[in-house]
Amino acid sequence: MTMSKFSERLKQLRTEKKMTQQALADLVNVNRVTYTNWENGKREPELDKVVELATVLNTTVDYLLGNSDINLLDASKEEIQNLTKEEAKELSASLIQNMDTILEAGKEKFNMTDDEIEVMKVLVIKQFLKEAEEK
User: Fold this and answer.
1) Which of 123, 117, 88 has its CA nearest to residue 101?
2) How does pLDDT run across 16-59, given as a tens digit for each residue?
3) Is the pTM value of this prediction over 0.90?
4) I need a surface site. Which of 53, 70, 90, 135 has the fewest CB within 10 A?
């Protein structure tokens, strides 16, 4: 069985952070065998676990799943400033998609309404803008 882009990136990001499989499994509240099966490509996690993994590993869901080759959360300010217009568009679209994926997982896990999801989007954007102003 060949490893999926997801399992390859999962292992790569974990090893870059110098974490053991057990440590990462503990952080996302699964047993080590379950985690090892994800990393070996034998099983795939539920969406909420993908979101948790991406959060712990400081990456986007899209990068972890192999939908993007840019780990946006790991890019430096200089790298972001040097993006071409097309790359910047892709980055922006990817961040929006990542936020939507995270909120969709939250919607399912916490039984949120569409209105509550829209409020969360506004709160996230407000917080982002506040932090950008402070820098």
Assistant:
1) 117
2) 999 999 999 999 999 999 999 999 999 999 988 999 999 899 89
3) no
4) 135
